[in-house]
Amino acid sequence: MPAFPAFPADAAPDSYRHRGQRRALVTELSRKGIRDERVLGAIGQVPRHLFFNPAFESHAYHDKAFPIGEGQTISQPYTVAYQTELLQVQPGQRVLEVGTGSGYQCAVLLTLGAEVYTIEYNRVLFERTRQRLGQLGYRGAHLFCGDGSVGLPAHAPFDRILVTAAAPALPRPLLEQLRVGGLLVVPVGSEQTQRMVRVARESAAGFAREDFAEFRFVPLLGAAGWGS
Ligand code: SAM
After folding, report:
1. In order of start, what are the domains of the chain with their CATH numbers?
2. What is the pLDDT, as a whole number, of residue 228?
């Protein structure tokens, strides 16, 4: 479990009140159908309010997506929990996250013991989040700025790949960078609505696809997304 030795100067540090709000959020996610105790435990540990602009901190423990600037959002906690549950992350696994955004999902994956590679397309968000994760004591992640729709071939293969933006189709480069036995979770569909998809790589050429609930994500930009 990561420690939180320092907080951004203007942020309210973690407190009894915040921990209580997180417990209430975990209860709400459990009521909405999240079953994996490890995922619920990680949501209960990560101080989501510290991934917000301090002016909007009071929104942090509502089960809602929220703007983080640059036209992007921090995903709804239910969505984070849903995707993380489908991903079935085990400690020590190499996980690629496409769409670092605020860094919150990355912190959840680190709390589950993953070795996280995360890539963000937007340079302003990338710089801000790199600084924030460092300040919060999450030092284990490998952060990259660039087009994550084509993955990180130099660091492949990955045990798990998680895409936190909407793809028009399964991104082929990400399928290729999945280890045999690995799982890819990605929302796929139109720019308006997507279905959550999980793909298991069963052999070098064998992939099994499962479709789950509908969601609405911001678009995945880039070569294997909707373009730039
Ligand atoms: N996981 C994030 C969090 O915990 O805050 C939420 C991600 S937000 C819903 C989607 C992010 O994907 C945005 O920050 C956006 O800039 C990023 N994105 C979109 N296309 C991308 C691409 N091709 N490569 C990397 N990041 C991308």
Report:
1. 16-215 (3.40.50.150)
2. 81
